[in-house]
Each structure stands twice: as C-alpha cells, then as structure tokens.
Amino acid sequence: MQRYPFAYEPKQSFVQQVSDWVADVFYEILPESGFEVRDEQIYMAFQLERAYADKQTIFAEAGVGTGKTLVYLLYAICYARYTRKPAIIACADESLIEQLVKPEGDVAKLARHLGLTIDARLGKSPDQYLCLNKLEASRIQEDDSDLFQDIYAELPGFVNLPEALQSFYPYGDRRQYAHLNDEQWSKVSWDSFQDCLVCDKRHRCGQTLSRDHYRKSADLIICSHDFYMEHVWTYEARKREGQLPLLPEHSSVVFDEGHLLEAAAQKALTYKLKHDVFESIMTRLLQGEIREKLAVLIEEVIEQSDLLFLLLERHSRSVPGSNRKEIHHHEELLHAVLRFKAILASIEEELVFESGLHTLDEYQLRIVEEHIEMIQLALGIFMQSSQVVSWVLEEADGIMLVIMPRKVKELLSERVFSQRMPIVFSSATLAVHGSFDYIADNLGILSYLSFSVASPYDYANQMQVVVPHQASADHDFAGKMDAALRLLRATEGSALLLFPSREEMLRFRQAAAIHPAYAGMRMEYEGDREISHLISSFQNDVQSILCAYTLWEGLDVPGPALMNVIIWSLPFPPNDPVFSAMRQDAEHPFEQVDLPYMLLRLRQGMGRLIRSKDDSGIVAILDSRVHTHDTIRSKVKEVLPADVVWKQSIEELDPIVT
Ligand code: SF4
C-alpha cells in the first residue's frame, strides 16, 4: 500500500502537503468523479489544516449537508500514516459507527473515488458482543431457551475446541443476531458485571478477538463516544493490571456529533453496584483457606449489602418518562452505607494479613481488593450528594445502584485535552448563541480553534413545517393519533416518528395496534431488532414508518424513504435524577437546562429530513405547547432553518411528491 496519496516531500511541512492534496481532492478529483463539492466543505478543509498543523482542538460547526465527514477523514487518514498511529473517529453511538463503514458510506466513497485502500476497523463497545458465560446460563434457564440453543449451536467450532486460534475470526457481534430484540439480547450480551479478567473463555470470546483485531488498524479505528471515554477512564487501571488499554496510542481524535461528548464522559465515569455481583466476588475468598475472623467479616458484609440494597429499594421512587428511580438520602440508608463501608475497611485490613500468609490465590485476591477499593470510592462519593448524581435501576435480576459525578471537566481536561494532539469536534450544533465557550467550559477545554458554516440546502423550498393547531393538544391523545395518521397518508408512509421517551413510543404503539386506520401501515419500532438492520430495512422499504426515541441524532437516510419527520412531543428532558441535579445547579432551570436541551434535540431531529439537495418533505410538531407557551413558541421559531414558515394545519401543506 502506498503510504501517502500524494508524492511526499520530507523537507516541507507535512500538514501543508496534506492541505494541498485535500484542495486537489475537492477542486479536481471529486468533481471529476461526478461529486458535487460545496464551498462550505472547502472552507472547512482549510480550517482543519490549522488544527492539524498546531495540534489543537477545533470546534467545527457545519450545517447538515456540508459533507464534513469527507473532510475530517482525509486529514485523519493522512496524519495517521504520517505518525504511524491510527486516528480515532468517535461517533455518538453504535449505529453511527456502522453507517460510516457501510458499502455506500463515506469511508467506502473515499476509497473508491480516490483509489485508496483504507484500513478502517470498528472498536465496538463490549455490550455489542455475546458473552459466552451468559449464553451458557440463558440456554439452560430462560423460557425462550430454544432461541439461545440455536445461537449456541451456530457458534464457530473453535469456541469449544482446545486448539489455539490461527487467525482472526469475527463472531459474536450484535449485528449477527439482528433477529433478537433488545430484551433477548440483554440476556446473552456482555454487561458491566462480567469479570472478563478472570474468565477462562476470554481467549475465545468474540469481544476479546475483535479487540486484538482493531488495535492493529493502520488508518482508522471507529468507535462510539462511550467507548472512547471508557478507554480514557480505564487507561491507568488497565495498565496497572498488566492489560493493554482499550484503544492503542493514536494520532488524532474526531468527535462526530461532538455536542454529545459530555454525556458520554459522565456515563463512562459512573459506578454501578449490585448485591448479587458483590456477593459472588466476596464468596470467592471463602473458597480459599482463610482465617475465621476474615470469614466472619465476609458473612457480615454480605448481609449488610443485602440490607443496603433493600433500603435502596425502600427509599427510591419511580420517575415518569425515565427508568432511573430517584433516591431519597434517608438517614436509615446513610447509616447502612457507613456500616457497610466500615466492615469493608476491616476486610481490607484483614486482607493485608492474609496476603502475607500466601493461602489465597494472588490473582483472585487482587481482583477482590480492586473491587473493594472501587466500592469504597463510589460509596464515599455517594455520601457527598452535592458532588454526585445517583439513582437506582430496577433490573430483572435485582436492583442496581448507579453513582455518577456531576462534573467531569477537570478529569477531561487532564486526561484528554491537555495532550498535544489534533482533536476535532464536528457537529451541526455546537455553539450556543454563536459562542463555543459553553461547550469548551463544560469539557474543560482551555484553548481552542473554531468556525461555523451554514448548511448549503435550500430549506425554504425543500422543507415545510407544520404545527397543526386543531389536533395537537397534549391531553387529546386521540387528536394526535389522528394528526399523525393524516400526515402519514400525505406522504404514503416514508416517515420517521420521533418520541422523547420509550414510554411515549410504547403508548403510541399500543394505540396504533388497535386503531383500524393504522392497520395497513408498515410500522417498525426501535428495540424490536438490532438498530443498523432496522435502519437499513427502513431505508430499503420506501413506504415503511420508523418509530424511534433515540434517533433524534445521526440518522442519515437521504431519498424517498424519509419525507416526513413527525415530532410526537417536544423532546424536553425527563425529571430524572440527572436532570434534577442539573436544574438544582442552575439559576433559571427552565431557560438554562430544559429549553437548551429541548432545542438542541429538536434541531437535530428536524435535521433528519433533508439529507441531500434533492430531498424534500415535511416536519410536523404535534405538541400544543408551541401554541400555548410564548417562550417555547419563539424559541422553536428561532431554531427553524432560515426562511421556513410554519403552517398551522395539515391542509395548508403543499402537495408532497412521493
Ligand atoms: S471474556 Fe467476558 S464477555 Fe467473554 S465470555 Fe468471558 S465474561 Fe463473557
């Protein structure tokens, strides 16, 4: 493989040479291949040159249709080859990383039109892989064990053979099990309570094999924000344990949909505690020859853990629109936490003695010590409720305590943004009122470059917006069902219905299932199948209707399959513990937390409609608050693309050409 796509001159600045080549690509090579190159794209290319030359962070705000992905890929690939370290492209979620490498995706386009061989590999999150241990348990215990027996029967032969693996063989990826719904998948997929370090199947596990594979990429490793943050937070601990970091040394990072990075950073820094897992880790110690004092303490701490989780259940309450239960920091609960921590501290002391006696397996001992250390740290911060947000999740096998820090900026600043490395934030929505200071401050970025370019699309002629007056009252659910029906008929399907929460989507689903007029429509629901299969089936079945609650961002379906985006309700954040904590910190919670969150998501949601210059269609908002609440109305108007006027009834819409 030729190292660079241009003749490299070592005596000249490398980045300057890349920039010259990128100019050739956009002025000559791509137009000659029939590509429509936009001025905004060329402008962005010159801006990125500064970030790569100075190894700086840059906020690249570029409207929908700018073609920003092609620009950052060119720089990232060349720079990876120059430094001999891959670039990381971090996308907002797992479905987006698939979109980048699909046959008609941007990586394949560049390879085809520029004659490049691009080594792009996916670094998927662990929960995208089958866990052999969970599969083993589910195929015996679960009601639908036939389903899991079939998965077991189809595992590659080497999984159950003793011989060493000769070459990489990918398997166990969520995509291979597209027919499983999310609930079925959760019974066999990796979760954070699996202890891969001590698992005897790890050398044959699809997750471990894929990790070895993507680490060797020469050009690009494409992963999710969550996975990148997991890499950052676990970097030191993995090195201490003698493991390789999740991602290899890299030359640059692109955060696509970069406005979502802070949420991913918080998510990756959360601690999750569960009684069953704690019990199984502690009982490992009882299998060795240990002194009676330690054995008694272990029994005691398991009992205390049981009590603690009972109290958590007692002192937490459900929140509508969220699966996160709010915890009341009751005195009884705090007392139980302190008692639990005290017993753990005594165990820690005893383990120091025990390790001197060499009666316990050293490896097991280290794992237990690390877990205790993590629990002590997590519960320590749980007690300082002003520093953290915590909640309870109810799962089929018991409840889980989740503890998340309120602010991550100090850590991000130290571990990510203090490095001298080109870091690109790419999104259509990064600035707040024209300034990037808000996002920079939240992420701990002290100095940065930035630019904004508008979308090249003619929204006034391509997009119609309707907020139907007569049928959008929140209390009038039947009215919304009727409005949605008329809109779906206007485009003969080809629609995306966006809901603010899974709960709202399920309510709609129940109603549509018994509504005779919806009977003949081809509805697809998020969660029924693996997400990238769901998206590609929506794209290929032009008249189908996709109902989703997480696809406000990133979904890229140009052409006739998506001519109608129906926003069921404005995407305000739920009243869950995370947003309650943000509201508590704000002087004007509605203006500082709820409204900006809703407007950003709304902009993203509306952005799903026009994905090419030939697209046209409708955005409909079925939420009466646009009519009844002055601030909401004026703010929603502000985020509509320039020159788009909204209509007040479906009858006012111009005919849609399907
Ligand atoms: S290595 Fe981890 S994911 Fe794989 S089988 Fe073992 S515990 Fe499960």
UniProtKB/TrEMBL annotation:
One of its GO terms (molecular function) is DNA helicase activity. Keywords: ATP-binding, Helicase, Hydrolase, Nucleotide-binding. It holds the Pfam family Helicase_C_2. SUPFAM superfamilies: P-loop containing nucleoside triphosphate hydrolases. InterPro entries: ATP-dep_Helicase_C, DinG/Rad3-like, Helic_SF1/SF2_ATP-bd_DinG/Rad3, P-loop_NTPase. Gene3D superfamilies: P-loop containing nucleotide triphosphate hydrolases. GO terms for biological process: nucleobase-containing compound metabolic process. The keyword Nucleotide-binding applies. The keyword Nucleotide-binding applies. Residues 27-302 form the Helicase ATP-binding domain. It comes from the Bacteria. Belongs to the helicase family. DinG subfamily. PANTHER family: ATP-DEPENDENT HELICASE YPVA-RELATED, DNA REPAIR DEAD HELICASE RAD3/XP-D SUBFAMILY MEMBER. This is ATP-dependent helicase. It comes from Paenibacillus rigui.
